[in-house]
Amino acid sequence: MDVTSNLSLGDPLEAARKATAEMLQAREPSFSLAQPFYSDERLFQIDMQEIFHKEWLIAGMTCEIPAKGNFLTLQIGTNPILVIRGAEGAVHAFHNVCRHRGSRLCTSDKGKVAKLVCPYHQWTYELDGRLLFAGTEMGADFDLNQYGLKPVQCKTAGGYIFISLAENPPAIDDFLATLSHYMEPYDMENTKVAVQSTLVEKANWKLVLENNRECYHCNGSHPELLNTLLEWDDVTDPRASQAFKDHVADSAAKWDAEKIPYAHASFGLRNRIVRMPLLKGTVSMTMDGKQGSKKLMGRIQNPELGSMRILHLPHSWNHCMGDHVIVFTVWPISAQETMVTTKWIVHKDAVEGVDYDVARLRQVWDATNDQDRRLAEENQRGINSTAYQPGPYSKTYEFGVVNFIDWYSERMLNNLGAEPASYLKQINE
Fold first, then answer.
1. Is 231 among the domain residues?
2. In whole angstroms, what is the distance from residue 191 CA to residue 226 CA?
3. Which end of the chain, C or N, has fewer beta carbons within 10 A?
């Protein structure tokens, strides 16, 4: 027996996997999920294994690791991950686990190193993951080449870093090419994170996403956001008025003049990019609708770019304006606990206190995130009740939620190796 092979006690979730597939196959279309999907720890573990360990995730932004040796770390379930800038600008991702006895290599959120050195026994790795040094006590026949860091699939596009823990993750290159085109005006390599927030919500990660995917609740919950946001997703939105369509047409003419991409681009239900105008007379998601940063991004000359909305399932939404970009990512912690990170990104030469004020820049979304936290937590408390049963989504206001749950159901069944549900057979990734 190869003592280095992975041994297993068996799959304690086998019965739960079968039940998960059966519940998804029997689900009433356009209804919310059965209670265990939002509350059961076994199903949470299946979510992590079949969704967050197999799909593409946004690990961070390239501007966060601008130079050789810059790194960032993150945690995906029980897996510590390291993303680092290597030679000639290459971005690498690895399991943040030493091949000696498994200690974490990098223990801080961010930093810069010349080499990757394990703090436990000083095993030393090159930035591309090769083992360079294992001390003098491993024996003359010890082969360094057999003990490099375990790689994680990694791709970059438009300033975003995408990773997947899967050996063979789903195809994503078409979306990444489009993302690069749409992000070109922003010159994301020459940006910086002005401020970042981390919010822990006592709710299942899918409830956090469901809340984000509709604005049915906006009028009653988000006064700050509605100072600038138009709640329609697109001119094809079933609720879109003629006045809104005219506003889009006027805005599109200005964007065309500056060669700013804006047309709706979709890649199955997983990814979507579309630029939508903000409320007339506003240019940025601030309390007064004026620029949050005086210095516009990249080659942008006109601040009236509305908001380019980027959706990436399972866990990210984004707003890209002329003066700053906001990146949201969702990270499941447990069945009923989720971390939401928000990054406000500005031109790298923008000066805090001169070009932008951090408190003003983050005010709208700090308020909105906290409002959404309360909504998701109350949603979770109700779902935990014995009275809960799946309820119907609105086909007008909540079609985005329907799309998310359909995507989730299709990917879960596919990744489990189960038969697709009849109501999902038209979905293509």
1. yes
2. 27
3. N
For CA atoms 34, 40, 42, 47, the dihedral sign is positive
User: Tokens 């006045």 — which residue?
Assistant: 243
Which residues, listed in sequence order, are joined to residue 341 by a DSSP beta bridge?
198, 329
Token digits of residue 56: 């593409």
Which amino acid would we find at residue 121? H
Structure tokens at 193: 């994170």
> Residue 109: which domain range?
57-164
Q: What is the DSSP string of 85-112?
A: E-GGG-EEEEES--TTT---S--SSEEE
Per the structure, how many domains does the chain have? Answer: 2
Cis peptide before 314 (omega within 30 of 0): yes
Computed from CA positions of residues 381, 386, 389, 394, in that sequence, does the dihedral angle turn out positive or negative?
negative
| pLDDT score of 268 more than 90 | yes
Split at pLDDT 50, 70, 90, the class of 429 is very low
Q: Examine residue 130 and state whether it is found in any structural domain, yes or no.
A: yes
**Residue 90: CA count within 13 A, CB half-sphere:** 9
Sheet holding 131-133, edge to edge: 116-117, 124-125, 131-133
Which position has the token pair 């709710």? Answer: 203
**What confidence tens digit (pLDDT) does each residue in 370-400 have?**
999 999 999 999 999 999 999 999 988 899 9
